[in-house]
Write a structure and sequence with these properties.
mainly beta, 3 strands, 0% helix, elongated
Length: 78
Amino acid sequence: MPGEPPPEQRLTYSQQFRRCGRASCPRCGQGQPGHGPYWYGYWREDGRLRSRYIGKQAPIGTAAPGLVAPAPAQKPSG
């Protein structure tokens, strides 16, 4: 299906701001970053860079910038 990465494909994640284009929008005005940040996933397919919107929440298995991902639980030894 177009827009879907192949299951075996590795994704690279990025956060981006978007502008809506409305002249009266306070988030998109002079000196403002725009709407977001929103998460996007990127992969290569047939020599082209493809992307897909993920959402406002960080994808599972990634840590948001400035946060440390929790360490996996360790089994007690012995």
